[in-house]
Write a structure and sequence with these properties.
By secondary structure, this protein is an alpha/beta fold. The chain is 32% helix and 11% strand. It has one domain (24-283): Rossmann fold. The chain has helices spanning 51-56, 86-98, 111-121, 144-154, 168-175, 181-188, 196-203, 237-246, 269-283, and strands spanning 34-38, 61-63, 105-109, 127-131, 224-229, 251-256.
Amino acid sequence: MYRSPDEPTPQRLFLNPVSTERPPRLITSTMAKVAVFIHGMWGTPDVWRNWRPFLEARGWQTIAPALRHHDAPPLAPPADLGTTSLGDYVADLTNTIERLPEKPVVIGHSMGGLLALLLCARGLARAGVLLTPAPDAGVIALRPSNLWAFARIQLNWGWWRRPHRATLAEALSHTFNTTDPREGAELHSTFVHDSGRALFEIALPWLDGSKTTTVDPRLVTVPLLFVAADRDKLTPPGVVRRSAQRFGHVSDYVVYPGQGHWVPGQPGWERIAEDTIAWLDGKAA
């Protein structure tokens, strides 16, 4: 189902607040609503500094694990980060989810949205919210804007096995293009390095012999919400719309005007979070 964000949203259901203790080991079967947040490329759990308390105040228990090697200092990438696969990220997230008493919903941004989709295809979640997600192998994502965003990285021979990190100028132009530049600079300072292998698997899936990002839509049987932003330069709304259409039997799609890629924190994030909660209350209650 496709709807505009201008249409009325479903009535939200409020439950009694639950513990805000965050380590997965503390979650018990009495927790009614659990969300696993998955950050994107160059990110850390700090990406969710707004969304986590927002959901917790509305009765959700949240978990936001750091992807493998993303807890390292921003300018000191681990030696083996460059060859870390999206499959490694999925394996670690799977381990986190399997320690929970029941399936959570997964909420991912950018690369994290693709990881959320891969988890849903493995039957590990009861719903997925994909915020400006990187596409799976079934969607051609190449656009002039995102080609330019990664040109500096990909013009260096061997980039597919090396750690990489966006420069401040690249981040302000492509990730934070609708965010105040001063805030964008502060956020960029938290960026860590990411995996060349993971970027290769996203950008050039037809060359990936492991087919890491290949998803059979028939394997996805849980509700998916695809969220696009009409000023997104990294995953433009046309790319997100095509992704939603591939999973049309279970997907809803919404595009937000005036928004860029940084939907977790740019002005207007509250509305997107509210709409997400309303959708989850209707689809994953």
